[in-house]
Amino acid sequence: MNWLILLQALLYFCIFILGFLVCIPVGINRSSFDGECILYADVHHSGKIYITGSASSNCEFPIYFSVFGMIIVGLLAGLCFGYFALRSRSDEDVGRRMWTLPFIPLNAVLTIIALVTACVLSHGFNIFCESVKDLSDLIKSCALLEHQTFNNKTDTGGFVGLSSLSQAGAWIGFFIYLIQTGISVLRFFRNRQLKQKSTGSS
Asked: If we measure between CA atoms, which residue out of 193, 200, 11, 179 comes closest to residue 95?
């Protein structure tokens, strides 16, 4: 069996799972805050705590990428690589015949977008959290405002834990895509060397 192809299949399935860890928490937090996006949101106090949500694109971008760039790509690529990994048990040349060059720019682009997504989730939540802590010296952590009422009607739910989960999923997804890019480059040069050897020997 070609272990590099099997490794890539497993990593793509990990990306597939991580996609849910990104999009679901972001969607739940948005629902908990009455449709407002808390990433980069502004918080002010006038008797009660009010939130002015940021542009909806700040939340939609991570959701769209996690669905299309992680869940769909991870599932389809995982199934594809899993199939060729099984094929390699009976045909050792499968790995050499597989197209590797297209996966290099694909994984590289997805790596960059995953990095941007992780930065948006982390930096956006930090800006929101700092805005919350600026309301009072008594507020040392955003966790103190979980399951509280904002805008007179919004139960915040466990937004801190959910935000941490989405950030972790995005950062792990970024590192996995980075590894995938490295493996794709490695397989490309390895396959080219094997082809050159087979051409020289013939």
From this structure: 193
The confidence score (pLDDT) of residue 147 equals 76
154: alpha, beta or left, given left = phi > 0 and alpha = psi -120 to 50?
A: beta
Number of Cβ within 10 Å of residue 121's Cβ equals: 27
Tell me the pairing of strands 48-54 and 37-46.
Answer: antiparallel
Euclidean distance between CA atoms 39 and 106, whole angstroms: 28
Cα gap 71→65, rounded to integer Å: 9
Domain limits, the chain: 3-201
Please tell me the pTM assigned to this model: 0.88
89-108 pLDDT, tens digit per residue, is 877 777 677 778 888 999 99
At 199 the pLDDT is 64
pLDDT at 49: 72
Residues in the chain, pLDDT under 50: none
CA distance 70 to 110: 9
Q: Where are the alpha helices (DSSP H) in the chain?
A: 3-32, 57-64, 73-87, 94-97, 103-133, 159-201
Distance separating alpha carbons of residues 59 and 110, to the nearest angstrom: 18
